[in-house]
């Protein structure tokens, strides 16, 4: 029985074999590694991944798809909303650090990225199919229109690069946007800072992009009674990630 893509789950299934092979080559899975696939769907990437790594854990919310996947002995199926999966506990149970991959639902991709950040110490790397625009924001450098809160919050913890662009016709049904595959490698020497504090600080900074920071972040700092040598005569997009992190440490 053919599975009909469910709009509420943001389902778009990869169908282009050349693209699938290119993604798996970019991931380069090896036998013995602990791979976790988010949203395996109809198994387009699952099959070539299992060929190389032999065993795979998959997180699937759709109960019909999860039932199909359970018929395969080489798969451990976690039927759950990915936002409810404790990846740190999963790593501990599987006995090592995880390599996380997946074609993420575009409607909740950002919450998934932030959820996984909470288990970053237990992850070797991440390879995700995302909306191309989101990938550009994730990897953006200071000074451009794509650089923003998402750039800062993720680049604080990861080295990020786009490894492949994917056109809409590679999916069934095709999405209305271009897609891309991004590689995220946790930084071993990331500065220690409260994610909540950094998130609040960066959100305030980018709340009015066209204004100088003295109108937004400057007032936020004054309200906290913080006096630090931070130049607020700039716009938010001009400040490098390291400066935002250092400021959050100083505020803390």
TrEMBL record:
Name the job this protein performs. Answer: Specifically dimethylates two adjacent adenosines (A1518 and A1519) in the loop of a conserved hairpin near the 3'-end of 16S rRNA in the 30S particle. May play a critical role in biogenesis of 30S subunits.
Q: Which organism is it from?
A: Rivibacter subsaxonicus
Q: Provide the catalytic activity annotation.
A: adenosine(1518)/adenosine(1519) in 16S rRNA + 4 S-adenosyl-L-methionine = N(6)-dimethyladenosine(1518)/N(6)-dimethyladenosine(1519) in 16S rRNA + 4 S-adenosyl-L-homocysteine + 4 H(+)
Record has Transport as a keyword: no
Every copy of the Ribosomal RNA adenine methylase transferase N-terminal domain together lies at 19-188
> Does this entry carry the keyword Ribosomal protein?
no
Stated name of the protein: Ribosomal RNA small subunit methyltransferase A
A single Pfam family, by name?
RrnaAD
State the EC number(s): 2.1.1.182
Predominant localisation class: cytoplasm
Provide the GO MF annotations for this entry: 16S rRNA (adenine(1518)-N(6)/adenine(1519)-N(6))-dimethyltransferase activity; RNA binding
The record's keywords, sorted A to Z, are: Cytoplasm, Methyltransferase, RNA-binding, rRNA processing, S-adenosyl-L-methionine, Transferase
The entry sums up its family as follows:
Belongs to the class I-like SAM-binding methyltransferase superfamily. rRNA adenine N(6)-methyltransferase family. RsmA subfamily.
